[in-house]
Amino acid sequence: MSDTPPDRLAVNPNSPFYDETLLERGIGVRFKGVDKTNVEEYCVSEGWVRLSAGKTLDRAGNPMTVKLKGPVEPYFRDVASEG
Predict the structure, then answer these.
(1) CA-derived radius of gyration, the chain
(2) Which domain of life is it from (predicted)?
């Protein structure tokens, strides 16, 4: 398995960018230099993250999200803890 996270990843199983094996491995996301724990989806090449907005849900029962633009740095948590 590669030590480079994918360019785009989502935690929603209905998304085409969902990958259960990568999520089980543990991916952390730094956005503008700060570790974020509420990331629903990210894209490195386009430079954005989609963060859950509290515990609010939309009509379909999915978390409400906010899309923010800036530098995105995904990393594998198991690699970061070794180094």
Answers:
(1) 13
(2) Bacteria
